[in-house]
Amino acid sequence: MMKEEINEILKKYDRKKISIGTLGSHSALNIFKGAKEENLRTVCICKKDDEIVYKKFQLADEVIFVSQFQELLDEAIQEKLRELNTILIPHGSFTAYISAEEIMSRLLVPMFANRELLRWEVDREKQRKWLEMAGLNLPKTYKDPKEIEGLTIVKFPGARGGRGYFLVTSPKSFFEKAEDMMKRGHLTKEDLESVHLQEYIIGGHVYPHYFRSIMENDVEFLGVDKRYESTVDDIGRIPASEQLQIDLRPTYTIVGNIPITLRESLLPEILRMGDRVVEASMKISYPGIIGPFCLETVITDNLKIYTFEISARIVAGTNVGIGTSPYLYLKYGERMWMGRRIAREIKKAIQTDRLEEIVY
Ligand code: AMP
Ligand code: AMP
Q: Which domains are seen in the chain, by residue range?
């Protein structure tokens, strides 16, 4: 039903004046710069406090102010976006601050994404099913804290950038640490009821970025990043004896991203994984993934690749490629990155009158 309504809206759009819109956060600069390079207009839904970003970089043609991102659902704001012929690009702040359910049912603005898959992305059980369908290696999970055996990571729902995650080694350490994390305000009682317990894989953390192009009928590999996290990435700088004295426990709050290139012999598998994830997505919800997606992987010392999450939209890790990235350079030469790749796909769809195929 939603798709028919979106098609009706698209019919009224002036295709010579399409705007690319997104929430002002996460990867908005990446997306806006890409749109500008492809001569599309941009519209930023922005919180007043964050205006400085879009002022200094001059990348938003239109700014719509909100006091919180939830207001994207307000009818007046949606109407304004439709007047501007906006195609929305969802990123991490969409599912973090507006629910996937509301995006499915209340956001009547064309979106460059398969919304059903956004719903799959925020549900860990569904994610797991999807990754298993694609034949990827997944870490073991435990249903009950009492089953914990060996190093285990404790996670909570939604894209919170690893905030509140902690490590345990046994049922006993789980209950002790959960208590402590609550005392320190890192998590609530409700969080504890929705914990996800996963075998902790020791290895190199690698986040490959892909782009599924409907226009070119291909799955492209655009780049790789790893995360820079507070406090876990600083722990190696503190000797173990001092760590014990201050009872240091790692947290995984994301502060930024670091670009990486992969050992070339890892590429065959990384490329096949992207293809298989798209094939599985087509079975879950046709036409499958539209545009960007990312796998979160850990690669062990015997080069086994474990995938523990999928993002069915642009990830902020692609910001490391703004301007260019090594793998994009191989295919496109200079000046290509995720935000621009998105805009180019939309532009091609406009030119060939196929916008209905990529906007939902
Ligand atoms: P924010 O608008 O910065 O709060 O980001 C929205 C969500 O996306 C947060 O819950 C973060 O977990 C995630 N996120 C933001 N920036 C990054 C980043 N650079 N790398 C990975 N995840 C991010
Ligand atoms: P997430 O929010 O799931 O992307 O993960 C936050 C942090 O925990 C990142 O540094 C991940 O690389 C790490 N992480 C998540 N799951 C695992 C796992 N099963 N094994 C090892 N590290 C993990």
A: 2-113 (3.40.50.20), 124-137+203-228+255-348 (3.30.470.20), 141-199 (3.30.1490.20)
